[in-house]
Design brief:
The complex is a heterodimer of chains A (about 675) and B (about 250). Chain A has about 675 residues and is an alpha+beta fold. Chain A contains 17 helices and 20 strands. The chains are: A alpha+beta (about 675), B alpha+beta (about 250).
Chain lengths: ~675, ~250
């Protein structure tokens, strides 16, 4: 099947308006006759469910957590971008569009990104109207800060808990619709298959995680807002339950999977401490506004720091290597995430890592304490030369900005970051790849939509900070509710969809057979055993830097591991009860398939772009080397085993931006 | 370090539960409390036994999913954290640790340490929102200036993660701290004023209907709240309720 991105004609700035004017609408009275299933209740799914219900559709929403409020969007810390130009620093829709396309290393679709930038301002208005308590300045107006890869202050925030506040906003919008009876909410439910009738998505098979019951749910359209698949790496900043299952089942039913190898590695996470570790914790990128990143210049100091005989605070300024400021003077510590991550890896690989395992660099706030402190002392008319006083005043300011992050760090690492620099290291944080969608956010299966992190569309090969929250809410509040009408307009006479059909029978049988197989396997090794091994392969061979040899090995190793999983996995307990191991097993089984496709996709992409770094393709300075012939989206069609997947290419045309070498120097 | 764990096991809501003893060795002080339970669960699975069911998700202290009593305290001994942020360095070699689920009529046990907190959601359905269309046709955000003090106070109330520690710590199983946090957030913001009366009346009514007890100003909820939600919010909710009652 040929990929049709359905990008509207006309000038870039008019495309979305024109499209909205031209697509089909559903009359309000007819919306009542139409059911929509939304899977996932994070920023994308939650906002979509609320808006679709408000428009008048009957919505059934599903999440695996005990409440929609727990979706992992809640953990996003730093902020959300919008081209409001409240700061008057030259921001505009075009600039946000430009920064996002450039930040994504020219591997995202122009029309989608422009639309994202265009609706970004509405998001802030909408959220403020819903009572989201964004940070304000003393005049009562909204405050902004700056994020990596950007030269303007366009990031709106609520301390270090922006994701939480935005998600609670979407959750409250959902609650209003649940209260009205327009959303029927299914919590502790997991989608295990999509049902396709006459070529159209017409429902899902879900498992009630408390009772184990397998349920059939029908609808006129199905929307997936199920997030990303970074947990394929086992260790990541994702929530423990985040998984690819719903998206993968959709892929198996015909939805193409795009750019699976595009993963963002976030530069500022708390380093790994031991084998028992279950997850990695992110420290917001906003910290890079005030923190300076460094490692010692000399190996002897590295050794002294590692064995504890030298404290980082004792190391003289001239013996520190502020490597980001040195290499990228224009952006300094605020280079994009892929650049910062690779630079940290490069220093640690060279032996300059500062913790026991040699996999950590410092994020130091000492200069910020003094800078803010001097300002405060000046404002308050106190002695600017009193170092202790200035430091204390400065620490207060930093505490106000990032207090919860500092507290989080101290709890995990047992060190006080006000007194000693934080240690950080990159970790898997976001997947830019996902289900392929057209301009309407529809997958290659008619009636099946993918929004937010679950789709591939807006971030290209790298995601800039504060852009994921923006995309989730843009898709859910302002894009999908319009575009889905175009499809549903043909369904006003269809009437309710029966779940009593051979397609539902077949999908349910598919699900129950898999569960039976898992539960009766009588193997010897736990689900986590396999998940950890998969994670090691993914991190070592498909991680921050990749090469042909490693990727080929990864493909073979993952296929072998998958075979071993199905032979030897052990799941205690039964299928008809709350069984966390069973739920995990299904998710890991899907990661074991996705992981192989991931490696296969990375192998095909013989270039370095954004967060995806192929060692064979780098400039003499060690920067990513893009190749013109790879200016496409890779969209994979399911044909059974991942090794048989067929590659389709969507060529990316840049008509409004000149494709240049990305430079942050 | 070596530990003795006394953990509540309960097969389902219908079954009777009991405390079961487990011993663990080689527990690292760097492990989080939940990672310690992960290790125990792997040992149980390897022996062919059923692992201990407990709720958890983000493991960063923000999703509000994790919920357990550790030695009689919600989220364990440390202040202002969730149990996923508790580390084993807070314990000593040879310690005996009691691990139990939240106990409240409105939070029935699902299995082992997992309870059903959907009553919290139902309270939110009754009024935990501002009735604005999600159309994006709202006025410019800066057209509603909000005093920084009020915005910060609203934010502080809004940081509630809905974990239920307040209910579990209260001798009356009261949900006042949880409900008052949402009421306060909106009471402090101009956007929330229009339906303030209905909001507080409806939410309190639903809270009572779910079987939560009353507040007797003991303050255990505030002490055990992982996000430091203040008792001031309860006072504010009471004022809002009184105001709403007069309006009828």
């Amino acid at each position: 099947m040929a990929l049709d991105s359905r990008i509207p004609q006309g000038p870039l700035a008019d495309k979305w308006t024109r499209h909205k004017n031209e697509i089909n609408l559903v009359n309000p009275a007819n919306k009542r006759l139409i059911d929509v299933i939304v899977v996932g209740t994070g920023l994308a799914g939650g906002s979509a469910a609320a808006t679709l219900a408000e428009l008048g559709y009957n919505v059934k929403a599903f999440c695996f957590q005990d409440s929609p409020r727990r979706a992992h969007s809640i953990a996003a810390q730093g902020g959300i971008n919008a081209a409001k130009n409240y700061q008057g620093d030259g921001d505009s829709t075009y600039r946000l569009f430009y920064d996002t396309v450039k930040g994504g290393d020219y591997r995202s679709r122009e029309a989608n990104v422009y639309r994202l930038a265009e609706v970004s301002t509405n998001i802030i208005d909408q959220c403020v109207a819903q009572g989201v308590p964004f940070a304000r300045d003393y005049g009562g107006l909204l405050d902004n800060r700056s994020f990596g890869g950007v030269l303007v202050s366009r990031t709106f925030y609520a301390k270090g808990q922006t994701g939480q506040q935005l998600l609670l906003g979407a959750y409250s919008a959902m609650n209003r619709q649940i209260g009205r009876g327009k959303i029927k909410m299914f919590t502790r439910h997991e989608m295990l298959d999509v049902v396709i009738v006459d070529g159209k998505a017409r429902g899902i098979i879900a498992r009630n995680l408390v009772t184990g019951e397998i349920e059939r749910h029908s609808a006129h359209a199905v929307v997936l807002g199920t997030g990303g698949y970074g947990n394929a790496f086992y260790l990541s900043t994702y929530a423990m339950g985040s998984n690819v299952t719903a998206a993968w089942k959709a892929h198996k039913r015909g939805a193409y999977f795009a750019n699976p190898c595009y993963t963002q590695i976030h530069p500022t996470c708390i380093p790994v401490s031991g084998d028992h570790q279950s997850k990695l914790t992110l420290m917001s990128e906003s910290l890079r506004n005030d923190g300076r990143i460094w490692v010692p210049k000399h190996k002897k100091d590295v050794e002294a720091i590692r064995d504890g005989s030298l404290k980082p605070t004792q190391l003289a300024e001239e013996d520190r290597d502020y490597y980001l400021e040195r290499r990228y003077p224009a952006f300094g510590n605020l280079v994009p995430r892929d650049v910062a991550s690779r630079a940290a890896k490069e220093r640690c690989d060279e032996g300059y890592g500062v913790n026991k395992t040699g996999e950590a660099v410092y994020l130091d706030f000492a200069s910020a304490f003094m800078r803010y402190g001097k300002e405060q002392a000046h404002v308050k008319g106190l002695d600017e030369n009193d170092e202790a006083l200035v430091k204390k005043l400065g620490q207060e300011i930093v505490k106000n900005k990032y207090g919860n992050l500092f507290q989080m760090y101290e709890k995990i690492v047992d060190q006080n970051p006000y007194e000693t620099p934080m240690m950080i290291y990159p970790a898997v944080h976001y997947t830019m790849g996902g289900i392929w969608v057209d301009y309407n956010l529809m997958t290659t299966v008619p009636g099946l939509y993918a929004i937010g992190e679950a789709n591939f569309s807006d971030h290209g090969a790298n995601r800039l900070g504060a852009s994921a929250l923006m995309q989730g809410l843009a898709d859910g509040y302002f894009v999908l509710p319009y575009t889905i009408g175009d499809y549903l307009a043909d369904d006003i006479r269809t009437g309710p969809i029966s779940t009593d059909s051979k397609e539902f029978d077949e999908a349910e049988r598919n699900v129950t057979e898999t569960i039976d197989k898992l539960i009766n396997n009588n193997g010897t090794k736990s689900v986590d055993h396999f998940h950890k091994r998969l994670g090691k392969i993914m991190w070592n061979k498909c991680g921050m830097a990749r090469n042909e040899k490693d990727l080929k090995e990864a493909i073979t190793e993952i296929a072998a591991l998958r075979a071993e999983f199905w032979k030897d996995v052990l799941i205690p307990g039964g299928a008809d009860e709350y069984n966390e191991e069973l739920a995990k097993a299904g998710r890991v089984a899907d990661f074991l398939e996705l992981g192989e496709l991931f490696a296969k996709d990375a192998l095909v992409r013989e270039e370095s772009a954004g967060g995806h770094f192929r060692e064979e393709y780098q400039t003499p300075e060690g920067e990513a080397m893009r190749r013109k012939e790879f200016q496409f989206v890779s969209a994979w069609e399911y044909k059974g085993e991942p090794k048989d997947a067929v590659l389709h290419k969507e060529d990316l045309a840049y008509e409004n931006i000149k494709v240049k070498e990305r430079s942050y120097k | 370090m070596n530990l003795t764990l006394k953990i509540w096991r309960q097969k389902s809501a219908k079954d009777k539960g009991k405390i079961v003893d487990y011993t663990m060795s080689d527990v690292s002080p760097d492990m989080s409390f939940l990672e310690m339970l992960d290790v125990l669960n792997q040992e149980l699975i390897d022996k062919g036994e059923e692992p201990i069911a407990f709720d958890h998700d983000c493991r960063e202290g923000i999703c509000g999913m994790c919920s357990m009593f550790v030695n009689g305290q919600a989220h364990g001994p440390d202040r202002a954290i969730t149990v996923c942020q508790l580390h084993m360095r807070s314990f000593k070699d040879g310690d005996t640790i009691y691990i139990e689920p939240w106990r409240a009529k409105a939070f029935p046990v699902i299995k082992d340490l997992i309870v059903d907190r959907s009553s919290f959601d139902r309270i939110q359905h009754a009024g935990g929102f501002i009735s604005v269309n999600t159309s994006g046709n709202t006025q410019d955000a800066n057209a509603i200036p909000i005093n920084k003090h009020d915005a910060d106070a609203a934010f502080d109330a809004a940081t509630c993660i809905g974990c239920g520690a307040c209910v579990a710590s209260c001798k009356n199983s009261s949900a006042m701290l949880f409900v008052s946090a949402k009421v306060s957030q909106f009471a402090l913001l101009p956007q929330g004023q229009v339906e303030a009366t209905d909001r507080v009346m409806n939410m309190v009514k639903q809270m009572d209907a779910e079987g939560f007890g009353n507040c007797t100003n003991t303050g255990a909820c505030e002490v055990e709240c992982p996000k430091g939600i203040s008792l001031e919010n309860i006072a504010r909710m009471n004022r809002e309720y009184l105001k709403a009652s007069f309006k009828g």
